[in-house]
User: Fold this.
Amino acid sequence: VTRIARAIAALVVIASVAHAERGPSTPPDPLPVERFRLGNGLVVVLAPDASASAVAVHLRWQAGAASEPPDEAGYSRLVEKLLAMGSVHVADPDARIEAGGGWSSPPPTADYLGVTDHVPAHVLELVLWLEAERMAGLAEALTEEKVAAARDAVQAEWRAAYVDEPYAIVEREVERALWIRELEPLGRPVLGDGKAVARADRASVRRAVQHRLVPNLATLVIAGRFELAATKRMVERYFGWMPMRHGVTPFREHGMLYARAVERIVRAPLRQVVVAYQTPPFDLTADVAAYLLANGRDARLQALVARGLATDVRGEVRRGQVGELRIVATPAPGVDPRVLATAIRDEAGRLSERASDDEADAALWRAETDAYLALENLAVRAELFGTYAQQSRHASLLDAWPRGSRPKSGFGIKLELAHMLSPSGAVTVIGSPEAR
Amino acid sequence: MRLLLVALVALVACGPRTHVLTSDAPVPWDRAQVDWSKPPALPAPAPLAPPAPATFTLANGIRVVVARNDRLPIVAVTAVLGAGGSRGDGDKPGAAALALELASARLAVPGAQIETHIATDVATIEVITTSSFLVPALRQLGELDRAPPPTAAELAGVRDRQLADLRERRTRPRTIAAQVFDRVVFGAHPYGAPAEGLPETVAALTADDVAAAWARTFSANDVTLIVAGAADVQSIRRAADAAFAGWLRSIPVATPWVPAYAPQLAVVDVPGARQSVVLIGTRAAAAGDPQQLAGELANAIVGGGIGARLDRRLHDELGLTLGASASFWRGRWAGSWALATTFATERTLEGIRTALALVEAARTDISAAELARARADLLAAAQLAFETNAGTVRALERLAAQGLPLDGYATYDKRVRAITLDDVRAAAAWRDLSIVVVGDWTKLQTELSSLALPIVHYDRAGAVLP
Assistant:
């Protein structure tokens, strides 16, 4: 035993010396995260922040539009509407959160169905009680009236988006074109197809709720000011008793499968050009591209506005199981949108050649600032932690994004830009009132 | 090997079983041992915990406020420029705003998000960046006093953008209503005119005009630097000392005369408009008024957005509008209070009368329960403001801009809780209300004439029409 103890001690010393020689490693994570799983499968991510005064609770189920069977297209949105209509013991969950000085918002996406609450720190236990009650009891509390109200609301949204003033047509086409083959489910619209929801009745909706609001599909993120040990006990108390249930089969991405280059023209009320690319979700390269191309003070595509080809150009980055970069532009009056689309793709495709290392460096710094700004907001932080937890077992989001990008040089970023913005992966959708 | 496999299988078989229910099995509520019939009792809310900033003064009198927060490696820094407000423009309206925009375009702090804002009393430049670039940010801000004056090309580019923005404002009924309201309440006082100037005045500015505004803005020692985030006080002191050493001018601030105010019905005719934008309001006390907090609470009850009286009655109950809210604006020399909303043309008079009745009723019937809710909302909003570095600098910036003590938030919680129901009812006594209507006058004239206010017509730029 003594020999073994000596050997272990020697190994510890060697390891310490080796560590010291390497110098200080990554600085401690300023937003430490503890992640664990309850016995019923619910993933819990606790991100305490002593400098905050509020707390954000984000509860999501990996049962968004991408996980919907065809006969339930749009049901995620339907369930989201029902979340606000009360459960077995609580008729007015959102009103109670507002009365506590907070707010609640459901952010449904193709990836997940969920809810985010932001409250003063002392209201945390009430929120956990409310959310647990709602998760367990929503299906039991469904009535024909509630289902009808939710169905009407979703149908009205669907009509507004795709029929009356079809502003969302372009969005739908971009998603359909960008996500192909195994990633096709990511392109399913959250509002569904306008048919499945129209047929929804209490029995089918009840079944849908029972298949979605199950702990084994859920991730609970708590970010902000709270006491760690007491919160763990509360989470176990309010959520740990729920049994696992059979649920929908969640869609999980299987790596990036780059889209094929395509250009589509759709009839839409406004003239618009969208050029989209798949990107890694937690990597600053997409943000750098958005900044260099469209959002910076001297962004390259702003020249299209100066040349009279476009009236505005902006870049958007979206983060889900896979990320997405979009360049959105409005053609100037009289300009053929296809000419504008070609100019955008051309500039994007050559960005890695044309941008200097200094420009790329500057854009990287700006993207890093924006990433930290997003993380300052507790609700956004909780949602980002939720998205990250869904796809990585690594605890620290900061180590991956934005810190993970810091060692990259402008030169390194440009190599990645060349790959990401390849013309062979550019999806273009043109919206035009004149299109047939 | 076989034995090992058998042992493994046995271990797995004896381990804890995961019980998976079918999806339609009833919820075993009893298993939770939680009382679902009543929510858990909440602890008392913690008192407002604003940052406790370190404050110090540079040798030249510039104040520096540092609210340190090491949560994330970013900082927000704001320079509140006392000599940069539009009140210094005199007969060159818009010069200070152009100088500010030009200065912002000169800053090249890596990774920075830069925003400017001009008001009558002060101008501000806000820089948000990663902590490693805080010192360069301070250096560049300080060096503005030594920067060469703007070139004609720089001026042309910035002025074109400013003119486009100012012209576009004349197409927005809400903005038109707000500008006319300021003119009604403050008359010829600088508060009565847009801080950015008007298209006509901006177009007439020369490079010398803007250079003069630049020299005034970026050399005076009437500056408050506010920093929030992962920032070390000593390094900020060193950087600010060096960067702002040349900011020595003391520019006396004259107390502008605030003309008399009389209520009126101000009308901007928009033929064919299907909706009327309506502002109802009056002059209020300047920043620092002893009744300021009572006024904020009264406003929260009457017009603090969704759930407040105005929105509940006008939107929820009567369907007269898509939303209604009210707010105070406080300057160093005077203030105003106004409610803003939009009515369909044919329901404009009904909406105005309903709103007036709600304002009148607030003098007497605000309840203790409403006050308690308003207090909680006000404190929660204040706490929320400190969630981000930008929120923190903006909260402190408001105090600096209004000339109030920078430690005002330290006692905020106590002061809010000390306000009584009588205080709030007294503060809710908004009198001498003016009404601004931007809408189709030919359809409104007959009805609105019954409001018994002198009618004054304005154009979209806020000028009185004959």
